[in-house]
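Why this split exists: single-chain examples teach little about how molecules sit against one another. For that reason, every record in the complexes split bundles all components of an assembly together and asks for one structure covering all of them. Below is a record exactly as it appears in the raw files.
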Amino acid sequence: MEAEKPRRRTRIQTEKRELILDAALEIFSQHGFRGATIDQIADGAGMSKPNLLYYFRSKEEIHITLMQRLLTTWLAPLRELDDVGDPISELRSYIRRKLEMARDYPRESRLFANEILQGAPRIMPMIEGELKTLVDEKAEVISGWMRSGRIIHTDPYHLIFSIWATTQHYADFDVQVRTVLGPLRGGEERFEDAARFLEQIFVDGLQPD
Amino acid sequence: MEAEKPRRRTRIQTEKRELILDAALEIFSQHGFRGATIDQIADGAGMSKPNLLYYFRSKEEIHITLMQRLLTTWLAPLRELDDVGDPISELRSYIRRKLEMARDYPRESRLFANEILQGAPRIMPMIEGELKTLVDEKAEVISGWMRSGRIIHTDPYHLIFSIWATTQHYADFDVQVRTVLGPLRGGEERFEDAARFLEQIFVDGLQPD
Amino acid sequence: MEAEKPRRRTRIQTEKRELILDAALEIFSQHGFRGATIDQIADGAGMSKPNLLYYFRSKEEIHITLMQRLLTTWLAPLRELDDVGDPISELRSYIRRKLEMARDYPRESRLFANEILQGAPRIMPMIEGELKTLVDEKAEVISGWMRSGRIIHTDPYHLIFSIWATTQHYADFDVQVRTVLGPLRGGEERFEDAARFLEQIFVDGLQPD
Amino acid sequence: MEAEKPRRRTRIQTEKRELILDAALEIFSQHGFRGATIDQIADGAGMSKPNLLYYFRSKEEIHITLMQRLLTTWLAPLRELDDVGDPISELRSYIRRKLEMARDYPRESRLFANEILQGAPRIMPMIEGELKTLVDEKAEVISGWMRSGRIIHTDPYHLIFSIWATTQHYADFDVQVRTVLGPLRGGEERFEDAARFLEQIFVDGLQPD
DNA sequence: CATGAATGAGCATTCATTCAT
DNA sequence: TATGAATGAATGCTCATTCAT
């Protein structure tokens, strides 16, 4: 109801907000929105609860801010998928980049998965807007490649879903993956192995004879 | 932590426990463990909170019970993967069954995903035990098929992970899938389309020339 | 948003609710809505805060319940003002009853005053409805008495306001009244003195020569 | 509790203090002492919260300062009641002035009412001192008029209370008055109507035959 | 003078669990 | 078995006040 006074940000404000967002990412991705407490986040950010609430008005505001940034980074690899490049190497790069993100930013992946799992209560508009638009656009690019015979014919949407699912799996189901692979194969090399496998499936599999 | 006194159960007890577990599945899969409340579950099961706690000692006990059953059902398709069958049709069936489960039991899938996402705090022993054992065993079956040249050579573990990831995606990321596909392609037929795509990738792709 | 489950009330429920309402009346009338805390009320009612919230869902619900009852009792004297009685003795009785209420139920008077002072944020509908309707009706009765020459002609609405103001003053401004009157005249007899004065002003003053 | 160091004030200090007091009057009269926040007052005064607290050490200090001024203005009409004037026209003027104050300074009236309602926790000394002294004095003046037969015999204290109550009612119970009078009679003319009624009651009614 | 930053104490409300019947 | 009643421990958020600059 109240008018948001759009506070101009000082340097300290910006820095502290980053601190908070980082701590929040850790906590939210681990416990989900409801499972996370402001206390935990404040602790992680090294400040008191009321002080944290001086930078963000509410738990939800932190979450929303996180989500907005997240989506942008998260969609970056897909956004780079280039119409004019070579289809095979474009797809290969896309898968590589997605896997790298799963390896380097697993918290972001889990935060996103958490939100979608619960029905995307706080992120739906972005899914319907930005995300859908981008996917539609890139699906069209892929369809073009198919029509021109540069990759075999298949469903571009489900192709994208599958790439998402398989790559993000290494972040979202990390504990399971590592446990199943065991100490011998569950180290960092698992990402190399996954990359090799996924290329075989998606890249070789899509290559016309 | 306390030793469970193994109470003998009457028929009524068993029925009520089922009622509770069903309600709990609904709530837990929707809100996660911490986000769910006993009140909601009791409501869903049509009984009072203390009465519910007569059948299960605590919120966690419900969750654990649910998880135990879940894993068994969840692994059933993989367990059916038959050593002596035809590899190609075995894999095809496996993918089909997993997709059917994603379609028919999305709550179970989400509950499982939720748990793993949070680091499997309550299910780790089963992952390390039952699940890992089964995967190891079936990976060996698949390896056997590869060695005998009946399917092409690749990594059986990552193959299993990929089948899990892609099929479960249709349950866990359901909102996103339907939103992106839009009203025209996001109906029940999405499972058919997915099946067709996944067979192309996994079955045709693994076929030796 | 949630559907109110209309709880059937047990005897204990009813008794405890009364206890709470009584304590709340004490606290609210003393500190106002915002100034009162649930802790204070729970303390006054001899129970824990969560226990109190088992009987009333929120602070506001207590206040609303209190207000609803209040208005009914509060308007009772005016409601008894009888069309067919003798105007002079009707007015005399009305003033007496209002003064008795100020003496015997000062907390109710103050609670009401508090609410109106703050712009009646939680009671406006009742003012616009029940209260206005009743006043309109009784103003018409008084007007009738005037038209028939049984009391002198004046404004019936402002007459009612003045009776309200003067009688309630002995509850609402009690501290001031007692302080000004001092120990000699500020005891219980102040109500007798007030009654005598008010009758002189309102009753004798309205009498036609 | 600490001894106030009597700070000498610059002109700017004085101006800012006025700004603050005006904003505080608005807020305190609307929400009561506990319901008001320093933030709201600082906002209303167009300054930051710590800056406001540079001019007044605490919320309470603002309130006390406000109360002290208030009482002086508030008692001015009574103070003007003149021993040597004509009793009837003195009383008439007194009522007029009090009604004008209710019309022009309703916030002051409500602030005062609020404080008394809560038992005058912060203003008691002034009630016992300044206010009581003045009332005693003026009651004696009125008694003199009665003894000399210039107005009829009645209780001067309760007469003063009644004039207070009835006039202040138009400020303190403003919402109720306007709601009951409705759009047709609840405009600014309500003060004229009230004045006419009150004169009839108090002035004509006190006139010896 | 002015303000951004920080905090301890408080507050309404929720929730898992226990107790008595 | 079943439930009404009770509560300790959170939990999100507010607010008067202080501190540093």
